[in-house]
Specification:
By secondary structure, the protein is α+β, with helices and mostly antiparallel strands. It has a single domain, classed as P-loop containing nucleotide triphosphate hydrolases (Rossmann fold), CATH 3.40.50. The mean pLDDT is 93. It binds adenosine-5'-diphosphate and magnesium ion.
Length: 96
């Protein structure tokens, strides 16, 4: 069973007096329950942006994120707040 279905995520940051910068361009990923994945890439490649979007902190302008069968776009602000409070955690660890 997929706990997360991420489809066609596109994120562009607006820049003052310049064109936007597209950081994620059509990213799709399925994550099964219990699966462990690593998102790797150089600094500035969009890892934090991606994590912010799949944890409901930020929104993509294109694409869908489905968590546990529910699409983020269909959830209201308080449902999203509950999701962030009860279902998601970030922690940091070293690799040594
Ligand atoms: N809030 C923001 N506004 C504008 N540009 C941003 C913002 N956050 C990140 N960026 C730009 O998006 C790109 C990806 O950043 P980020 O997601 O932090 O990458 P990573 O976590 O892989 O280092 C970088 O070019 C960064 O400068
Ligand atoms: Mg980062």
């Amino acid at each position: 069973m997929n706990i997360m279905e991420i489809q066609n995520i596109t994120k562009t940051y607006k820049q003052k007096n310049k064109g936007g910068i597209t950081v994620l361009n059509g990213v799709s990923l399925h994550i099964s329950k219990g699966e462990m994945i690593a998102i790797m890439g150089p600094s500035g490649s969009g890892k934090t942006t991606f994590l912010n979007i799949i944890s409901g902190i930020d929104r993509a302008e294109v694409g869908t994120v489905i968590f546990n069968g529910r699409e983020f776009m269909d959830m209201n602000k308080s449902e999203m707040a509950l999701l962030r409070r009860r279902r998601w955690a970030w922690f940091f660890r070293t690799l040594t």
